[in-house]
Amino acid sequence: KKVYLSNYLLSWFKIRIMLKNKVMRLLVLFVFFSGVAFGQFIPKQLNCNEVEGIESCELDAFKVIPKKYSGIVKCCENNKVTSIKRFKNGLRVGLSQSWYDGYFIAESYFIDDYLQWTKSWDWNTQKLTEFENYKNRLKHGLNYRLDGEKWDVWEYRDGVKIDHQCYDKSGAQVEDCKDW
User: Fold this and answer.
1) Which end of the chain offers a freer environment for a tag, N or C, measured as fewer CB atoms within 10 Å?
2) What's the rounded Cα separation, in Å, for the pair 47 and 155?
3) What is the distance, to the nearest Å, from the Cα of residue 125 to the centroid of all Cα atoms in its chain?
4) Sign (positive/negative) of CA torsion 161, 166, 171, 173?
5) Count helices and strands in the chain by DSSP H and E runs
6) pLDDT tens, 69-119?
7) Measuring CA to CA, which residue among 116, 72, 74, 64 is closest to residue 99?
8) Degrees, nearest 5: CA angle 122-125-130
C-alpha cells in the first residue's frame, strides 16, 4: 500500500469537523502560528550538478518533457537550482520547490497532476506567508495568508468560500478583516 503525504493532509480535513468548537479552532491556529514563527524547515538551495534531471526554465514544463516522462525538471541559474518539478508517467507528482536569489520562496505538492497544497515564504524574512489547500483543483479546507501583523484565514468547500476570519499573531480574533 502506497503512503502519500496527502493521506495525512486529508485526515486534517476530517479533524476540521472537530474545529467547530472555537476553543479547538484557536488551539489549532495557535499551534499553526507557533510552527510558522518557530521551527520551520527551509530547504537549502542546491547546486545544479547535485540534481539529476532535464534542465529547463520553461514555466510550462510539459512543453519540454517527453510523453510519459518520469523524473525531475530543474531550472538553474548561475549553477544554482531555482526550481524543481517532479514527474511520474508524464504527470506532476510530489514536491515542487522554488528559490529566488538564494532564498526558498515556494513549495507545492501534487498527486497525479492534481495540486494538493501550496506554501509561500517571504524571500527576505524566510517566514511562511501563505498556505493553500486544494481538492480536485479547487480551494478546499483552511487557507492562510499573513497580512502584515495579522493572519487571514479562509475556509473553502469545493472552491466556495464559506468562512473568513482574521487573527493576530497571538491567535486572538481581530475584527478589521478585509477580503482579498
Assistant:
1) N
2) 38
3) 17
4) negative
5) 2, 13
6) 999 999 999 999 999 999 999 999 999 999 998 899 999 999 999 999 999
7) 74
8) 30
Residues pairing with 73 in the sheet: 54, 85
Q: Look-up: residue for cell 511520474? A: 88
pLDDT over 90, % of the chain: 45
Alpha-carbon gap, residue 37 to 128, rounded angstroms? 8
Q: Which three cell numbers stand for residue 145?
A: 495568508
Task: Band the pLDDT of 59: cuts 50, 70, 90.
Answer: confident
Q: Is the pTM of this model over 0.85?
A: no
Q: Are 83 and 144 spatial neighbours (Cβ–Cβ below 8 Å)?
A: no
Q: Residue 168 pairs with which residues in a beta bridge?
A: 150
What are the grid coordinates assigned to 86, written together?
Answer: 517532479
Place of cell 499573531: 169
